[in-house]
Amino acid sequence: MAEGGVTIPRRFRLLGPALVVAVSAACAGDDSGEVQSLVQWDTLGSGVVFVQCERLPEEPRWTVDADLRLGSADGGEAAFAAIRGIEVDGRGRLLVLDHQASEVRAFDADGHFLGLVAPSGEGPREIGLANGIRVDAEGALWIHDYGKQRFTRLLPDGEVETYPFFVPDSLFLWEGGITVDGRVWSLSTHSDALPGVPEPGVHQGERRVYYKSLDPQGGLLDSILIGRAPFHSIVASRGVMRVPFSATLLHALDPAGFIWTAASDEYRLIKLTTSGDTVLVVSAGCEAPLVTRAEREVAIEEAARFMERAGSVDVDWDDVLPDWKPVVEQMVVDDRGRLWVVRATDDEPVLDVFDATGRFLGTVVPAFDFVPNFPPVVRDERLYVLQVDSLDVPYVVGAPVPAMW
Questions:
Q1: Can you list the positions of beta strands (E) in 181-218?
Q2: Distance between alpha carbon 366 and the CA centroid of its chain, in Å?
Q3: Is 195 exposed, middle or buried, given 0-12, 13-18 or 19+ CB atoms closer than 10 A?
Q4: For the whole model, what pTM was predicted?
Q5: How confident is the model over 2-37, as pLDDT tens digits?
Q6: What proportions of the chain, in percent to the nearest 5, are helix, strand and coil?
């Protein structure tokens, strides 16, 4: 079992040649336009280079406008109750998983309904309660169906395959995927806390986070420790909620065979092999935004609604709520191997983009709202995000991605 490098940033292991690239121009620049290196280097004995940028450059910076809004409160096939997955298949169809309806719907590029890819039901290609979808290198659609405790794989030729779960997972979203070697990956966490239900109150601790892989034909293959995730939770008698703005461990699977990780309260991106060996570290001096008074009030109101359902808990909000928001809110890898980092700012979240070698490509600023803790999806040079309106109706918003190379 191999260790990741998140909690021990200066003790890395290397398997094979170091995959590290540092371009001074990518982490440099001043108001006069002259390029000045702002990079600090730390070459480790293993040969891995730790690259720290004093700040991310302000350019290139693109604002993108939405050209698709898929969702309606008026009913019909574009009315969603709970979106838990967005994908694009090899035929260019936009696929949306509605958790509450237990079905995957297909739409064309203009948002016209094409049909059900996977309906609700008990048959081989039908689903129960699903919380994630992925398209693999062969163009097959994988559905993470925790209601039936299985993966359903729908091949382009109409064949259907099913595989039993090896890691039970009923989280909000399936935080895994499929690598090009055919292995299926899911997330698993473990804690050293004593077993049993904790007493109501505010609890802090740490969980070990693993990626576990499955060969669908041969069972469980590997378990990789990718880091340790802090948790800061409000435990009620009938439920648990995470303390708003508290830090966590973020991760993103690259189908090429890598795992990106980052602690959400610092801008340090770590790339691991699927054997757990660190191959690249990119760090930048990005300031975390303050939690505003209005944001505090909204967070406390949401917690109060949670306690109405789950049970009352005494909370000293001045002591519990952080003063600063996590600077990194989400990470995903697109179909070209680029890493997209959702970064919190004093205004709205933005998306920083890096290529597979860690070179900074630029910052994308969406001219529309989106849910930052729902991973964006970038496929076929288009960005798709989840949006929720004032009535909690979910929508899919799409926009073209700017040319980056």
A1: 184-191, 201-215
A2: 17
A3: exposed
A4: 0.88
A5: 333 333 232 222 333 333 333 333 343 344 333 334
A6: 5, 45, 50
